[in-house]
């Protein structure tokens, strides 16, 4: 159990207006959680302090070799005033998997959860209640040794910041257009693709810029070896409904194991839909499109929740999915997941945790 020191802000910021669309990741609350690590002391000095810039030595290792990790989860306010987290233990488990992969010391699960709960409680007034909004929680760890040699750092900072958010994509729940990348790759098996670390996201930027220039929202990655098996979108995992079956790439070491991905699989199984987690050749998607059996495509992610895909572009083929409309299961999954998150739907799978 952490002994958290509190320093409340003397100058609280103005809360966003109730009808503010809350552009994703642009507004931050009054406080943040910080905890330090040193080899001898371990994780120590847990504190909740006013949201503020951090001061680091320019030689801090995170700036040079990217030893950093992050997570993303959300808090919601129910109609009867409770504050709910959605499957926080899955994020914490994944955070420690990332930590092990990139040589960052693990954080005990109960301390991690306590830190999230306490900082959310401190800034509870910032949880937005307009439909489609939530409080995005961004825990991250950075390597802080002032040193230019390549090795794991001996010191770290663990920080949690909070941001009231609306939809991740400007499209909201309207279908997005996705560019299937055939030039660059995001990750390969044995690399760090399944870790939630900034390096995977920087690897995606060049393709993302190219896709944006062509009018596409996101990039769908193919595997780095055969350049034909579907992996993920970067900010989301990907699902297809083909001839009545829900199909998604099997976790293979280079795909991020999404918490919403797991939730989609669990719900579809609950509803009796056949779900296949397996290798998916992009040629199979093209064929399903040509046959008329490609019934739906959607992405899943914490930030995006469920994002219907209206168009896929692969090489010279433009695949228009469902005439660009929202699919039945995309809508049903979005409604059910957000319903559980907001305490409106029965939480039959025990996913929510009250703060
Ligand atoms: C999330 O869905 O929480 C993510 O981390 C994706 C993105 C915002 C980087």
Automatic annotation (TrEMBL):
What does the record give as EC number? 2.6.1.42
Q: Which protein family is named in the record?
A: Belongs to the class-IV pyridoxal-phosphate-dependent aminotransferase family.
Instruction: Tell me its cofactors.
Output: pyridoxal 5'-phosphate
Q: Which residues carry this modification: N6-(pyridoxal phosphate)lysine?
A: 196
Q: Which reaction does it catalyse?
A: L-leucine + 2-oxoglutarate = 4-methyl-2-oxopentanoate + L-glutamate; L-valine + 2-oxoglutarate = 3-methyl-2-oxobutanoate + L-glutamate; L-isoleucine + 2-oxoglutarate = (S)-3-methyl-2-oxopentanoate + L-glutamate
In terms of superkingdom, the source organism counts as Bacteria
Q: Gene3D superfamilies annotated for this entry? A: 3.30.470.10, D-amino Acid Aminotransferase, subunit A, domain 2
One matching Pfam family is: Aminotran_4
- What's the name of the protein? Branched-chain-amino-acid aminotransferase
Hey, which pathway is this one from? Answer: Amino-acid biosynthesis; L-isoleucine biosynthesis; L-isoleucine from 2-oxobutanoate: step 4/4; Amino-acid biosynthesis; L-valine biosynthesis; L-valine from pyruvate: step 4/4; Amino-acid biosynthesis; L-leucine biosynthesis; L-leucine from 3-methyl-2-oxobutanoate: step 4/4
Q: Which PROSITE patterns match?
A: AA_TRANSFER_CLASS_4 (PS00770)
Query: PANTHER family per the record?
Result: BRANCHED-CHAIN-AMINO-ACID AMINOTRANSFERASE, SUBGROUP IIII AMINOTRANSFERASE
Q: Its GO biological process terms? A: isoleucine biosynthetic process; L-leucine biosynthetic process; L-valine biosynthetic process
Matching SUPFAM superfamilies: D-aminoacid aminotransferase-like PLP-dependent enzymes
| Protein keywords | Amino-acid biosynthesis, Aminotransferase, Branched-chain amino acid biosynthesis, Pyridoxal phosphate, Transferase
Q: Name one GO molecular function term.
A: L-isoleucine-2-oxoglutarate transaminase activity
């Amino acid at each position: 159990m952490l002994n958290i020191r509190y320093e409340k802000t003397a100058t609280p910021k103005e809360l966003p207006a109730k009808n503010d669309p809350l552009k994703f990741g642009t507004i931050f609350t009054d406080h943040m959680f910080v905890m330090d690590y040193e080899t001898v002391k371990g994780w120590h000095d847990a504190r909740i302090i006013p949201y503020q810039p951090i001061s680091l030595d320019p030689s801090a290792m995170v700036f040079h070799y990217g030893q950093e990790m992050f997570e993303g989860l959300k808090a919601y306010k129910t109609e009867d005033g409770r504050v709910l987290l959605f499957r926080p233990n899955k994020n914490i488990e994944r955070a420690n998997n990332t930590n092990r992969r990139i040589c960052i010391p693990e954080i005990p699960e109960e301390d991690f959860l306590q830190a999230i709960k306490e900082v959310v409680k401190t800034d509870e007034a910032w949880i937005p209640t307009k439909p489609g909004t939530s409080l995005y929680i961004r825990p991250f760890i950075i390597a802080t040794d002032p040193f230019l040699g390549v090795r794991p750092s001996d010191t770290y900072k663990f920080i949690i910041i909070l941001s009231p958010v609306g939809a991740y994509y400007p499209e909201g729940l309207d279908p997005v257009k996705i560019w299937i990348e055939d030039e660059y790759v995001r990750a390969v098996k044995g690399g760090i693709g399944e870790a939630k670390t900034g390096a995977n996201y920087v690897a995606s930027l060049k393709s993302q810029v190219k896709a944006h220039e062509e009018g596409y929202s996101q990039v769908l990655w193919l595997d780095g070896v055969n350049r034909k098996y579907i992996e993920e979108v970067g900010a989301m995992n990907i699902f297809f409904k083909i001839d009545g079956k829900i199909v998604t790439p099997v976790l293979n070491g280079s795909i991020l194991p999404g918490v919403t991905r797991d939730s989609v699989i669990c719900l579809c199984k609950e509803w009796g839909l056949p779900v296949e987690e397996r290798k998916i050749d992009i040629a199979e998607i093209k064929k399903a499109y040509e046959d008329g059996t490609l019934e739906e495509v959607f992405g899943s992610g914490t930030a995006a929740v469920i994002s219907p895909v209206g168009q896929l572009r692969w090489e010279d083929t433009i695949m228009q999915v469902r005439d660009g409309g929202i699919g039945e299961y995309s809508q049903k999954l979005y409604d059910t997941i957000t319903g559980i998150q907001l305490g409106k739907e029965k939480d039959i799978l025990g996913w929510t945790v009250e703060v």
